[in-house]
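[stage:ingest] chain + small molecule (beta-D-glucopyranose)
[stage:ingest] validated
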Amino acid sequence: MDQRAQLERLARRSIDVIVRGQAPSGAYLASPNFPVYRYSWFRDGAFIADAMSHAGEIASAEAFFAWCAGVLEARGERIEALIERRRGGAAIETNEFLHARYTIDGRETGEEWTDFQLDGYGAWLWALDKHRRRYGRSIEPFVAGAALSAAYVAAFGDHPSYDWWEENPDHRHTSTLAAIHAGLRAAAGWPELSADLRSTASHGAVELAELVRADASRLGRLPKWLAGDAVDASLIAVATPFAMLPAHDPLMVATIEAIEEQLVHDGGVHRYASDTYYGGGEWLLLAALLGWHYAAVGRTEEAWAQLEWVAAHATPDGELPEQVDDHLLAPRRQAGWLERWGPVATPLLWSHAMYLTLAVELGVVGPRVEPVTETLATPVIGAPVRPAP
Ligand code: BGC
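[stage:predict] done
[stage:export] tokens:
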């Protein structure tokens, strides 16, 4: 099989892995074979749903959005009470916030976890909006849950929380702020929401963007968290896909250079320089995210190289792990994790999702249904989805 056909086969296999990892409730398991990942995360799920939408797997993406909306609606009163308390200046304990992950039927897991993470509640709104614009689909079925999510991130967006890697709870993380910003910007443009909420969302989005830009001007590039100076590969998402900063913005260009210098090793991408989880390997989803960014800025050859790097790290049966150990930052820390939790999570649905997104972006596979438009201002309610020729 030539290389192009292999890349295409892995994209199709990725859809298959994601479909198998999706529960009838719409929840995507982060990794079906890895005990602590047998739950559905808003963050992972947002990227997975976006990938499935990209590939034209409309029913899968919408089932996930319905699951998210259900989780939020079931907690509507609690969310409103939290927002009220915030308005009144009351202190809120970390364990009172919404969780980062749930069981497939939308319950809290009952296990100890670093659960206060805000980015997913913005990210799924972003994915929903991309989907709506891509196919002119109505968001009506999800709107009650989406409104709660938007109000929640508008109220707590600038609150410290755990980052993408579920660490450092005392900081405001730039990539978290970017996900929230993208969610708020999406909500600000939805005529289905009240004018009040749209206006709150719009102001919130502008404020977060200004906060991040002002802080980044200290360094001439983005920091992992506000007032810090470390680099983190999740910062790629500030431009691609969350568009908080344009990809060509000098702050973004300098951030990508710093990531390339400190975190990229022969195409593999580390999360951050002091990572020790499973020895601090290279994450497939980040290699694909960097490729997506390269594709967006016209560095097409490098985007292909990233796609090929990810494909080269698939298992013989076409599964993509969370990370690989070709180049470890902290090799002595690997064994402890292997003893504690067993082999690295494989397949990781988020890895497959990012590979799939990059593969669609590069035209390795086409979407199963043709996008209607990317620039739709208001949705065409009930617009038919045209099958691809
Ligand atoms: C990662 C998170 C991810 C989770 C499930 C964790 O190890 O740090 O970003 O959401 O795994 O995939």
